[in-house]
Amino acid sequence: MSATKKISTGIKGLDNILKGGYTAEDAYLIRGGAGSGKTTLGLHFLAAGAKKGDSVLCITLSEPKNKIIRNAKQRGFLLDDIQFLDLSPNSDFLAQEQNYSLFPSSEVEGFPLFNKITTKVKELQPKRVLIDGLNQLRFLAADNYQFRKSIQSLLQLMADYQINPLLVSEVGSSPDDDLKFLCDGVINLGSKKGSRKITVSKNRGADFRSGEHAYSLNQRGMVIYPQLQTKYARGKQFTGEIKQLSSGVQAIDKLLHGGIEKGANTVITGPTGCGKTSLGLTFIKAAAQQQKKSVIYLFEESPQVLQSRSASINIPIRDMLAKDLLKIQFFDQFELTPEIFVHKVKQDVAGQDIDIVMIDSITSFITSFASKTTNKAELIKHLHLLRNFLTEREIALIMTNEIPNITGDLQITDENISYLADNVILLRYLELQGQLKKAIGVLKKRMSDFETHLRELEITSAGIKVGQPLKDLRGILTGNPELI
After folding, report:
1. Distance (Å, whole) CA 223 – CA 13
2. What would the mean pLDDT of 174-188 be, rounded to a whole number?
3. Which of 60, 16, 25, 24 lies closest to 42 in space, CA to CA?
4. Which of 141, 154, 275, 457 could be bridged to 440 by S-S, CB 3.0 to 4.6 A?
5. What is the DSSP letter of 231?
6. Is the pLDDT of residue 284 over 90?
7. What does the pLDDT average to over 143-162?
8. Helix, strand or coil for residue 199?
9. How sure is the predictor about 415, in pLDDT bands with cuts at 50, 70 and 90?
């Protein structure tokens, strides 16, 4: 049995979801509300065919040709090789029609618009056809039976000429269940909690990736971000040799019994200003000294502030950037969704020899998106998928996490994400003899043992310095230690 032939949709992410693209010679229904990007998705399909040298046809029944061309050019589409048949209500064809009843009770072939479409299809015999505005035909049909019969006839004509048609339906203006049954595939565009989502609800005879996938519309047209897929199984991710990454600071490595593991998720947690980011950068600096690459994702301070602040503690971020050993991405909370963020991380590490990914901070990530698009549980699910993806590729993930209490009873995280962590490093403020000091300790390490004592931490112009174990104090975790 030969493999099913696929043709590209013109959108890389949609090809991924459909596991290769549209099935050749099958008809697909594109459904969505106003402004959801239905026409844009269709133009990607036509442009991909035209680029291959195929004859392609855009039949518009709702939006005038000149408006489609104007909007398409703004998104960078090259339309010179796309044929148009403009049957929109404002076109000359409809203006000259005396009889606006399109479906006579006798033969469907007598219906003027249908005749115009079939004539053009037979004349061009295109490989790809986009029919935009099917709802207009339904509005003008004598009844649903005649509409269904006409569409069936049209799809049969396309099949006879081995054409791949896309049919665009406006959701909400009229029911389109009959079109779902008539078409071989159904793709839905919509919005959920402020985030654009695309789903495939039907793909006859072919596999596809189910679920909701994020997409965006920009100057390039439509960009689709398939859900992250991993084969991760807890307990099986570290079956081979465990490789460690040093911090470059002997005392920190001693706390961690060597360092953090490649493929492990390390959460650095503590109150504001205690040195979480600086500690994460210390691992990145040590990696760069061994020509290992890292990526930092910032949700709080700008790259410029980070570079300036790091230079003051002997972490040469500018040199690392210049040598292509570090990449910094800054995200504003209004620029993206959590799905798009996870996809961008995937893109950044794909095909690159990356050793460390750092997210600064996970607190800001959750706070930013929880109020706009989704709840915290769903956000943590995205982090879980990202962690599994990086684990499979033996990339160390460092996440900084801010807890609200400067002193008082110990709190590891405020967002219940500690279960995602293979390692947990705690930074803590201490009040000793009227002075505010900092301490560092390890609370969890999945792949090895670790030192159970806390040590004093200093951030100096030479970098991070860690003192001897604080063995003569008790009550450290309460933030109010006492001399023994």
Report:
1. 7
2. 88
3. 60
4. 457
5. -
6. yes
7. 87
8. strand
9. low
Q: What is the mean pLDDT of residues 112-137?
A: 88
Residue 381's SS3 state is helix
Q: How far is CA 423 from the centre of its chain?
A: 26
Selection from 221, 199, 186 nearest residue 339 by Cα: 199
Q: How confident is the model at residue 335 (pLDDT cuts 50, 70, 90)?
A: low
Mean residue pLDDT of the chain comes to: 84
DSSP per-residue letters across 254-270: HHTTT-EETT-EEEEEE
Q: For strands 396-402 and 265-270, give the pairing.
A: parallel
> 347-402, pLDDT tens digit by residue?
899 888 999 999 998 888 887 776 655 677 778 888 888 999 999 889 999 999 98
d(CA 292, CA 388): 21
Contact in structure between 24 and 10 (CB atoms under 8 Å): no
Distances (CA, A) of 124 to 55, 113, 263: 7, 17, 55
pTM of the predicted model as reported, rounded to 2 decimal places: 0.80
Set out the domains of the chain in order of their start, with CATH numbers.
6-225 (3.40.50.300), 244-483 (3.40.50.300)
Query: Which tens digits make up the pLDDT trace of 289-316?
Result: 999 999 999 988 889 999 999 999 999 9
Measured at the alpha carbon of residue 82, what is the angle toward residues 76 and 85, in degrees to the nearest 5?
A: 120
Who wins on pLDDT, 181 or 99?
A: 181
* CA-closest candidate to residue 459, choices 467, 450, 469: 467
Q: Which pair of structure tokens corresponds to residue 378?
A: 């769903």
- Cα separation, 230 vs 392, whole angstroms: 8
